Amino acid sequence: MAMLNRVHLNGLRAVETVARLGSLAAAAGELNVSVSAVSQQISRTEKQLGQALFERTASGLVLTEFGAVFAARLGAGFRELSQAVALADEATQCTLVVSVAPAFASKWLLPRLSRHFDRHPNVLLRIDASVRLANLDHSDIDIAIRLGDGKWPGGRAELLLAQEVFPVCAPAIAQKLKSIEDLAQTCAITDERAMINWESWFETAGVPPVTFLKGARFTDPMLCLESAIAGHGVMLGWQLLAADALADGRLVAPFGIRAQSGLGYWLVTSSTKAESRKVRDFKAWIREEIEATMARFGSADAKPAGAIAVERTEAPSYVGSDIKLRQAGS
User: 188-191 and 143-148: which strand pairing?
Assistant: First the structure.
């Protein structure tokens, strides 16, 4: 390896290219340099090696006996280098970078990723856990999953699922809650960064507001969920984030009152980049997973007779637009 340090790579490329193509002019064209530059690189390499690689004849350069053996080894070496570089390109092409908020990644996406691995074993997933939506035109992010109204400048957004918001709590807490008024006897678990708070939820759901006992406040929705599961009080649960805990009984929705938030989870991609096969495959996979989640969620979310549910009459926009109450089952 030490000997390689005294031989310039450009010179070796010049030798291999001239030997393969048979002329200085052809090599200069492939290497995008002048004929004199190729000639100088060969002379410099011969001097560094202490061996003549070509004979200078009237008809051009002819490989010496040593040069023929040397050029054959160089050709094999450069082919290996080319394959090594291609591996990096292949790895880049087969890596799918998904940007997603940490709470959604932890509570919904991660438990399902093994099924994506099984279906697409050649795709390497890299999860960028962030609430900030980077400029997708100038980043390595292939697709983002975001909660919002679908309006992201420079992004192409497709609705994944409109989100309902409703009170959830541990089963032991739910046993004490027979009506909305009973919330006054329990603690509210508050997500300080939530896009919808208790006050706006009461208004949206069309029920009288309740003053809770003082409860824990968090700046992370994952901690709110864990606090609710631990029995610390009642929180406003977002449908997808709470779906698994509702399905397995760690959480229950004590009332049949559910309000559309006016927001939803969206798949966001660059509006200027062509959509790759790996992105299309991911979209198809995640929609199937959403469908399976909602089927499971629906079976675990049977509402009592006469409970009040909330439905929306138009596509999601902002909280507070056309929302109406209906009797469950109507």
Answer: unpaired
**What's the distance, Cα to Cα, between the start and end of the chain in Å?**
79
User: CB of 241 within 8 A of CB of 189?
Assistant: no
Q: Which residues contact 291 (CB under 8 A, 6 or more apart)?
A: none
DSSP code of residue 180 = G
Query: What's the Cα-to-Cα distance from 145 to each of 8, 65, 188, 218, rounded to whole Å?
Result: 48, 62, 28, 23
Q: Does domain 2-93 have CATH number 3.40.50.2020?
A: no
pLDDT in tens, 27-51: 999 999 999 999 999 999 999 999 9
pLDDT digits (tens, 9 = 90+) for 114-150: 999 999 998 999 999 988 877 787 788 999 999 999 9
> What ranges do the domains of the chain cover?
2-93, 163-261+301-327
Whether residue 324 has pLDDT greater than 50: no
Is residue 75 within 8 A of residue 19, CB to CB? The reply is yes
State the average pLDDT for the chain. Answer: 84
Q: Smallest Cα–Cα separation from 205: which of 120, 326, 303, 87?
A: 326
> Per the confidence metrics, is the pTM higher than 0.85?
no
Q: Closest by alpha carbon to 312, among 263, 247, 277, 241?
A: 263
- Name the architecture of domain 163-261+301-327: 3-Layer(aba) Sandwich (3.40)
- DSSP E strands in 11-154: the ranges are 54-57, 60-63, 95-100, 124-129, 143-148
Strand (E) or helix (H) holding 138: none
